[in-house]
Structure formats: C-alpha cells, structure tokens
Predict the 3D structure of the following.
Amino acid sequence: MRWAVPEAEFMDPGTLGCQGCGGALSMRMVLKEVGDDAAAVLPACCWSIIDGPWPLHSLNIPVLHTAFETAAVVATGIKAAKRHQGKDTTVIAWAGDGGTFDIGLQALSGAAERNEDILYVCYDNEAYMNTGIQRSSATPVGTWTTTTPDERPEPRPKKDIMAIMAAHRIPYAATATSAYPDDLARKVRTAVAARGGMRFLHVLSACPPGWKMPADQAIEAMRRAVLSKVFPLYELRNGRDLTITVWPDREVAIEEYFELQGRFAPLEHEPQTVEQIRSDVAERWQALVDRHERTMALAGA
Amino acid sequence: MSLEHVDDYPEIPVSLASTRTMLKTGAWRSVRPVLTERTAPCTTGCPAGLGVPAYLDDITAGRLDRAFLSLTARNPFPRITGRVCPHLCEDGCNLPIRTGDAAVSIRSIERWLGDQTADVAHPQPNPPTGKHVAVVGSGPAGLSAAYYLRRSGHEVTVYERRAEAGGVLRYGIPDYRLPAPIVASEVARLRNMGIDIRTGVALGADVTLADLEATHAAVFIATGAWQERPLEIDGAELLESGLAFLESVNQGEARVPGPHCAVIGAGNTAMDVARVLRRLGADVTVLYRRTAAEMPAIREEYEEALGDGVTFEWLTNPTAIDKNPAGLTVTVETMRLGEPDESGRRRPIPTGETRDVRFDGVFAATGETADLSPFPPFMQTRAGNLDVRPDGATRDPLVFVGGDLATGPATVIDAIVAGRRAARAIDHQLGFDARWPMDELSEPVAAAETNPTYITRRARTDSPPVATVDPFDEETRTLTTGEVLGEIERCMSCGHCNACRTCFVFCPDGAITWDEGPVIDHEFCKGCGICVVECPGHAMILINEREVSHA
C-alpha cells in the first residue's frame, strides 16, 4: 500500500520519549495533519518530559506547560486570546490518561459542556507512566502496575471516557491509534475541520516500559488492541451518531493482545477474569455495531 | 499585585532551541537499523536467480528500462519465459505461507514487462574482443549464449539447421502457448545486436565440428533433444513421433490421422501433443502407466489439458500395436503401483490383465533424447553420454555444450541459464573476466520475517484465458498495466526496499527522512527496532552497535 501520511514534520528528533514511545508517535502523526498554525497545552504527563528539558523543545509549535488538572481550561483561555487577536489557531490540549480520566476530568467536562473551540487529545497509555507506572482509572482490569502488583492486580474495568464525552453531546469525538496511521490522520483532519466546538480524540498509545514489552512490539500491540476489539476504532458525532471506522479483517483473540505484554501477566492466573474481559469486549463490540447500524439506517445508507 | 500591563506578569522560562541542536538521542542506542538488500525466496526459486522484487519495484516506479536491464542481465527473453516458464519463483513466494493468499503471479508480470519492452533495443555490446564464437542450435540455450557472448564483445555466428531460428520455441511449443511472431521478434532483436544467425546449416551434414573449431575461438553447441525414445513393443513402427507431429504443426502442416487418437506418455511434450490434437478436432486419450500423482508434466499443463477435454487412462501400459482395416488396435495392460523407484515415484507393476483399444492414430511422447552423432567418441562417456562439466565445458577445450543436449528434456529457463553459464565460461576461457552473474544466492528472507499487514489483500490476477476463433491463437492475454500494478501491490517485496514508507510512517522519533528511500538519522535513532519489525519485506535488519564501533 501507499501511505497517505504527509511528509512534513512538526516534531523535531531528539525528544526524550523512551524507545518505541507510542505517545511520541501519536504526537508526530497528529501534528502532521494539524500543521504549524497551532499551539499545545501540556499538563503534567509524559509529554512534559518528552518535549525536552529547558531550554530545548522539540515541537515546531508553541507549547505551554501547565498544572495537572488544567489542560482543557488553559486551552480554552488560549483559544479565547487567539480569537481576540483575530487568529484561527488550532489550540490543542494534549493530556495523558491521568490528566484526562482522573485529575483533569473536571476541567475537561466543563470545557466540553461549554462546547469550547479546542481539540482535546488524550494519549492513553493506561497508567501514570511518567512517574513510574502507577494505575489510573484508564488501567484495564487485571493489569499489573507498581500500585496494583501481581498479587493484587487492577480490580476495576477501564473507565469508558468516550461514553462520558458522548454524554456531553460534543460535535466530534473519536478513538484512534498510531497502528492505523491513515485512520488516525483522517480523524485529525475531521477534527480540525470541525472547528467551532469541542473535539476529543482518544488515542491509544503503547508504552513499552510500562506495558512490559520490547520496544519494537509497540505497533503490533496497538494493532492487536484493535483487531481483538479491546480498543475499537470509531467516531461519534454530536454524542449520538456512531460509526465504526476500522473493521478487524481477521480474528485476533484477546489472549494474543495480552501475551505481548508483561503487564497482563497476572491474567495467566485469573482465567475467570479473562472470560469476564472476553464477554465484556464482545458485548461492547456488539453495542458499537448496533449503534453503527442505527446510524447508517438513519443516514439512509 | 496589579496585572494591568504585560510587564506586570512574572517572567516565565521559555525554551527556544530545538532538541535537534543538543539532544543527540542516538547515544541511547545499542542496536541500529540498517537498510539491506537480501535475497527473496522467489529469486532463489528461479533457476536464473532473477531479482524479482527489485524489478517489480522498478515497474511500480515507472522505470521500465531499468526493469528490463536487470531482468535481461539474467534472462534475455522475458516475453518468452513470461509465457512458458513453469514459474518456480512463485512456488517460493512467502505470501501463501504468511497469509494463505495465492502467490504473486510473477510470470504474468514478467510477460507484461516483456511485451511493454518488446521494442527496446538490447544494450550495446562491449568493445570488440576480436574473438569469433560459433553457436550451434538456436533454441533457448543457443540464443541465450549468443546474447551474452555478443554483449561481451565477441563476434557470434549462430548455426541453425531449420529454416527459422528458435528451436523448440519455434518448432516445439505450440502457437497457442507461444506465438511464432514473438519468437521471430526476439530473434530479430538479437540480429540487431550484430549476431549473425545462419539458418539451413546442419551440424554433421553441412558443417562439421572440426570445421567450426578451425574457424572459431570457441564453439557452443545446444542442438536440443529431438529424438523420440523408441518404444520397445510389437508394432512400434506404427507409432507416430509426438515431437515430429508438433514440429509439423508449427510449420503449418496439421495432419490428424483420424477422429480417435491416443498419446503414450504424460510429460510436457505429451500434454502439448494431446492439446494440439484436441484443437484439431480429435478425441484424445492419454495412455500412462502410472497415475496423475507420478506424471512428469507440469501440473498447470495437465490442468490445461483437462480443460481442453483430453481424457486420461491411468495405469495403462501399451504392450502391442497392430494395424487393421479400421485403424490401429492397441493392446494395453492394466498396471498397479508398487514401491517407489530411483526417481522417488511409485513403480508401475504389470497385473497381467490386458484389453484392446482402437484408435486412428497413436503418438509416442515418452521422452526425448539428443543426437550425439556429430560428437567424436572421445567426448563421450562409456555409457554413451556427453561428458559435460556444470559450466558446459567438455573434453574438447574449444567445445562447450548446454541445454537439452546436455541434460535431456528440461525447461526453457534451464536452457537459458545453461546458455548464460556457458557464455561466462567461454568468456573466461578466452581470457576475459567472467562478466555474467552466476553468484551464489544468500539465504532467502523467511516467511516469519515478513510483515504482511500493510500489503494490499486481494485475489491473485493471472494472465486470463481469452476466447479465440482460431484454436492456435494465443489462449491467454497479457495483463493490462492496471492489473499488473494491482498485482504488484500484493508483493511484500522480501529483502528489497520498494520505498513503501512504512518505516518512515512508524518511526516514533522522526529519525527517518526520505530521499527516494529511507535515510536513517543515526544521531537521533534510539534503536527501538519498530522500522525493522514493521518493514513488510524485512529489508531492514538490526545490527549491534559494537559491531559498528569495532569494525
């Protein structure tokens, strides 16, 4: 195949991302579509470090580092200032799962409810990786982290952030991952084009050190997340119209996703949890398919 | 504190320099990715060792001249092999192993490339060497040797006993598989290189080996295997030679003995004879003493014969033929399969059970042998074969041989390789560097190393059958350019970078830039290995930094 990914780069090399960093790759791919008429707000997260130590930084757009809970609201303020200046700059709130699912949720909810004209991207590596792999509410059930050790792995399922965003009825929300670059790129373009209101991208981003796997398996892990339907790729308009954008072209069992990653080692001893996950995954996929079909029926397709 | 004016705000630290200036993350690396050129399994499968992924890449990029040059460096006749090759390359394809999809239809692509470049002149020969080499026989081995000898700068004269050049290509293979005009145009292209091709000159009758040796620096002989192996049964003289029949048909003299014909044997010649008879309107039965599993014909030709309506009588061995007013009566004995013989195929064993079958004509095609009469006894082994080294050299230092003459019936591509190999040996013998590639191929890229995720998954497109009015018109057509480009998209390009950009797309560090191909910036590459794992054809490998620093 021939990739539809632009050649232009807006992330310089020399970032402090780990080997095989999915978060760095997500940023690189998103900026390729957003371009340089943009500004980013980074709350505390891996990217606070990845962008580089003062006086260096890697992104070819202005970046404002801010407090953990404030990504959405600071982006809102910058957008207001830009609008005041008569500029149409795309303002990106770029936060990890901790700054989105947990600590930044209030500010995010407020901005979403006000339908602020910002692009909020959550690059989700499913734990607080930057501080040394502590669990977040994005950590899947059965996962090892330093705060959910092998003998007591994560007991609760991953929070459904997309359902929360859907409840806010924002114009555009989508899941994506850099293992599907063309899909990711198209969603970024759609989000940028939907300017005027709140846009939310939930981007699964592999973390080789935190997921306990070799760096070269990062893309394969994200791909299996999609193929096993653990992380389906879809988009959601106005919180209602849902369309699945990537239909797995082959069957991949959830075990094939788990076995790549050492963080899922506790599941080897918890077959009942695996069965629970399997039925949850199947149920959620079926629900997505049902909503997709309803959307298609309403659109007259 | 008043915040009325911008100066009232506290200063904040701002990063203004790029990480590119000072953060050389390449220092983190313990392994580095390197672009390589590795051997593909299709290349090792091909007797000529054709670098298939490289010329497929050239086609996609529109560099047809370069594709033609890289192909003809190992096989001068893509238009011909693109039609008649048993395509062992496709048997090696990693795609079926990795995905279950059918192999890339390399032969059909080769045929398209051959047709597209049909009017491209062959490269200018090297400066004249002052040596004159004789080639006897203008089949695939002779023409191939003539081509490479001429490119080396030698003066080359080809002697052909028949009226037209081409040998088995012209007089053996039926027109519906390989039209005569295509052979003629390839011969013309060789003549344009300055090769002198003289027809109507037979070795032994018109010119002797000694004559040729006296007037040439070296002689390459490839007169093929045109003698039908005699069948030792009662009434064998009533049999017609399958090969002679094909020859007469290719000369436009189609004579069918009657509506019911039989062909004895199940090799490639037998398939051609049976199919030609079918096309001339006869009912055809193939009599073979073993079964479909043991038959020597290429599977594809057997299937095409079935498609033409040829019937097969397995485990049927003719033991006698008798003439009667109504035609020929063939006595056949029913066989059964026993233990495998030295060829690895199960041996047919007589059961004693016989029956008579009536035909109007019976053709023998049980294997062909070479005519060794022009060769003096000292060149032959005690068993009556020519004593030949792998490069074609014989006991006479001036004489080289190749093709079916040396090996017995084999494929066109085997003959082409024999011609190239002999040209190289003759070149060497005449005091020139061995200029034609014969290098040993390295271990091919294994299926497990490839990544089929990003190739286009679609059904294989092969040169399709076409409806023809004349049963001897070519039975398939060349693919269209669109079909070829689509088919190439299925190829993983094992071991060859075809500039698909997958490595560039997935580099988390932006450490790969693009200049026709990937350029890895080792100042910043952290050595994560994603490019190597995601590369569809595994054209990148990781090497240990220690090997680089200690090199």
Q: What stands out?
A: The first strand of chain B starts at residue 17 and ends at 18. Chain B touches chain A at residues 13-25, 28, 453-457, 489, 500-502, 504-511, 514, 521, 523-524, 526-530, 532-534 (CB under 8 Å). The mean pLDDT of chain B is 94. The longest helix of chain B spans residues 412-429.
